[in-house]
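check this one:
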Amino acid sequence: MDILKLSTEWAKAELFSAKMVWVFSALILLAAIGFASWGKTTMASAFIIPFIIAGAFLLAVGIGLYAANKPRITQFEQEYKKDSFAFIKKEIARTTKSDSELKLVFKILPAIAIAAAIFLILFSSPNWRAISITIMLTVAFLMVVDSNISARNAEYRDQLLIKENTWQQ
């Protein structure tokens, strides 16, 4: 497969992930509005602020994903045309670094979820329960997105390594 096409498809898939994060962010913010408008119980009211914070956080994550990957589509073409072998080397280094960062994320996110679950068990107030549930929901969603990103990153890196090996032989 053509490396430029592979790289461009990878970047477009990352943009799709950013859009999915935005959709989930919008759903969380709509849920906050729903709780604010129709929530009559103390527990429903307790979800408003945590959902607003989680929605804003996810919106920022989506913006970060989009901002990091949108320019890559045009950059990939320019860098590949300039020096295709250097482009492959650079992408291998970047994907290797991303892989190590994702491994760290998959240690931190479960720890956050466990801490939130402990808070859920230990504290019975509606505010702490809403915060804990919101954190666990957000972490679970981020783990799903990041697992897809990790798999896509690994596949992309493998293809780059194959191409690099064929050029070196």
Notes: Residues 126-168 form the longest helix (43 residues). The chain has five helices and no strands.
